[in-house]
Amino acid sequence: MRIAVEGCGHGTLNNIYASIQKSCQINRWNGIDLLIIGGDFQAVRDTYDLNGMSVPPKYRFIGDFHEYYSGKRTAPYLTLFVGGNHEASSHLWELYYGGWVAPNIYYMGAANVLRFGPLRIAGLSGIYSGGDYNKPHHERLPYDSRTVKSIYHVRDLDVRKLLSLRTQVDIGISHDWPKEIVWKGKWQQLFRFKPYFETDARSGRLGSLAAQRVMDRLRPRYWFAAHLHCKYAALVQYDNDPKTDVEPEPPPGTIANEGANGVKNTDEIDIELESDQAQSPPATPGNVDVPETLRNELPTSFRRESSDSLPYPVDIVNKITSFLALDKCLPNRKFLQILNVEPINNSPQPPAIPPYRLHYDKEWLAITRAFSSVNPVSHTPQRYGEVQYRRLIEVEEEWVRKHLVEAGQLAVPENFEHTAPVYDPRINIQTREQPKEYTNPQTVAFCKMLEIENFFDAPEEEREERRKSVAERLPKGDGTNRAYHGGGRGGRRGFGSRGRGGRGVGRSGRH
């Protein structure tokens, strides 16, 4: 299967699709099967969505996603993306479990596992911040200067669900780089290219603990990331017998598009990892044993497993993960990679018959049901051991088999609907009025399918009361005390928010 991988989207879909088309023409390919974007997608539907995004006002621009949302354009390739730290958070909040942001463009939600043909793909949105990690997804419109950032911070609940997987995935996606991945590639060359990275890497601030834990648990064949605006390849080996004959760079047969104009930037160094030039990392906090007293201060998901743990899953068999991070879409930047991907296990469920389409993953649906008794908006569930979680998940696997698998209900429905109004160019981009909160019909349908409560819904009266309450507490002049705008859907019961992950790492130059 031929897929394209892109780094940060930053609202430039037209250029991304054009670059893929040009690469296919040059190589005489008949298109691609799938495009993966590693976050900062910026699914901005209208001007008000910009005020739900953590970007300084002077850098805000409407981008071109709204053309796909309105139907003016249609994505030429199925596009799959995770969230980053610069997103239209009010839009992605509606789709906590994942869903279509436009026809043929699918957001993976806070965390997800999906099947596309023979491939099994896991995704984790956001970036890591220890201060918010153990909190629920409490952020609601209107956002203030704190919640507009915390909404994209990774949460323990979503990581815990991914860590509950016990079968093999082929591809993992995160916005931030997994922590310590920098030491698995040509880090000396990277630090010459991005000198600020070295201080952050040596102090342990570079990368996501959450993404590292998930990658090390799932051990996919490929792990793709973005965030740091450079191309970097690395290789992670999980067995005790290092293989010197493995090429630890992007998969064989790949073709990279060096820039929007297809011209290689001679000023950029080549940071592909070559097996005969791999460098041993220096001593860093990640390379020494951590005292138990310090380990106990870590968020619960990063502590050593308790005695109530299971052996490592026998169905996760891959031993080598190829990591690839890419840049944002700009001329003469390494933002795109096109590669052929084969599944680790060639026995997908359901059978993979072209043309491929997205399917829900039966194990992930069972995990979602097992965790559904806790409101992700207001509570962080008590942490149980693997044994107890496994019992719950096995019960739900049987439910999924009987109600969805046997009924042939695993295909992701193509049920995109507008919630916010389409873009109106007459509205000044400098407006400080925040978007309205909507209940997304896709989330309603997903929760109905799984027979779980929809916590991402609320009566219109409750939403209006909350807006007024927040506005009264804000200082005059703060954009969050302005009224909502736009028409659209109301809601029914419950209330919600959706978290992302994120933390800065000093002066590393990330955006």
Give the key terms.
511 residues; alpha/beta; seven-stranded mixed β-sheet; 14 helices; 14 strands; 24% helix; globular
Number of strands: 14
Bulk shape:
globular
The tally of helices reads 14
Q: Tell me what portion of residues adopts beta-strand conformation.
A: 5-15%
- Note the gap between the termini: 31 Å
Largest sheet geometry: 7 strands, mixed
Q: Report the order of strands and helices.
A: EHEHEHEEEEHHHEHHHEEEHEEEHHHH
Looking across the biggest beta sheet, what order are the strands in? 4-5-3-2-1-13-11
Mind telling me the C-alpha Rg?
Answer: 22 Å
Q: Uncertain regions: pLDDT < 50 for 5+ in a row?
A: 241-279, 283-290, 293-297, 486-509
Mean residue pLDDT: 84
Percent in helix: 10-25%
Short account of what is shown:
The protein is 24% helix and 12% strand. It has 511 residues and is of the alpha/beta class. The strands form 2 sheets. Strands 4-5-3-2-1-13-11 form a 7-stranded mixed β-sheet. A 7-stranded mixed β-sheet has the order 10-12-9-8-7-6-14.
Topology:
Elements: E1 2-6, H1 13-27, E2 34-37, H2 65-70, E3 79-81, H3 89-93, E4 99-102, E5 105-107, E6 111-116, E7 119-124, H4 130-133, H5 147-150, H6 156-163, E8 171-174, H7 187-193, H8 196-202, H9 209-218, E9 222-225, E10 232-237, E11 255-257, H10 292-295, E12 320-325, E13 336-340, E14 358-360, H11 362-370, H12 386-405, H13 441-450, H14 460-473
Helix pairs in contact: 6-9, 11-12
